[in-house]
Amino acid sequence: MTKKNTQKIRISVKSFDHRLLDEAVKKIVTIAKDSWALVVWPVPLPTRIEKITVNRSTFVNKDAREQFEIRRHKRIVDIQEPTPKTLEMLQDISIPSWVGIEIKA
């Protein structure tokens, strides 16, 4: 049995807004499909929720508190058997500034 040497690109996409995240992932998937690469559909990872508690006032109402939260959404897209055209198109992709992308080959 011979092992087939296949390339794989893993793209992790992060954002605070899930709508922007889904829009960016759709662009990545359509680019990969247009270049005839095999795409494993985005895997949603658990949302990381960070809660911050602050006092409403400093002195008199010490027990009054307010909570804020930051939600961090993350998706992973695997592209198997990418073509050189795929890499070129992924580098030229336009994505909103609130979305972070990390490409690992």
Spatial strand sequence of the major β-sheet: 2-3-1-4
Determine the structural class based on helices, strands and strand pairing: alpha+beta
Largest sheet composition: 4 strands, antiparallel
DSSP summary, beta strand count: 4
Order of helices and strands: EHEEHE
The residue-averaged pLDDT reads 88
How many distinct helices? 2
Low-pLDDT runs: none
Q: Shape, please? A: elongated
Structural descriptors:
alpha+beta; elongated; 4-stranded antiparallel sheet; 105 residues; 2 helices
Question: What would you note in describing this structure?
Answer:
The protein is built from two helices and four strands. It has helices at 18-34, 84-91; strands at 8-15, 38-55, 65-80, 99-104. It has a four-stranded antiparallel sheet with strand order 2-3-1-4.
At a glance:
The protein has 105 residues and is an alpha+beta fold. It has 2 helices and 4 strands. The protein has a 4-stranded antiparallel beta sheet.
Topology:
Blueprint: E1 8-15, H1 18-34, E2 38-55, E3 65-80, H2 84-91, E4 99-104
Antiparallel strand pairs: 1-3, 1-4, 2-3
